[in-house]
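Practice problem: predict the structure.
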Amino acid sequence: QVQLVESGGGLVQAGDSLRLACAASGRGFSNNAMAWFRQAPGKERDFVAAHTRSGGITAYADSVKGRFTISRDNAKNTVYLQMNSLEPEDTAVYYCAAVRSATFYRTSSSYTYWGQGTQVTVSS
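Answer:
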């Protein structure tokens, strides 16, 4: 069982940066592939970024490629999402997700554990 708690969201202006953190508790964090998803009002929950259990392979949605970076610190049981050059279209609730797997997935239904989400609002 893994519990996830996101932090770091907020209200920023276009072009600013934010770093989200997802702290995991419980057993087996290092056994999980990790991902970030986001959900804007009235829209589906979309894939943002993910990496393998080892952290060696990452993937990004086309809309954030080159602006966002996912990383993990297994010693701190934490995964991060560094978001640069934020745009109003990035406004959403951001969720951290985990699945006991070596590899990651781009579909939300593949993930077992979810955080409660953190709001990111980007003003123009």
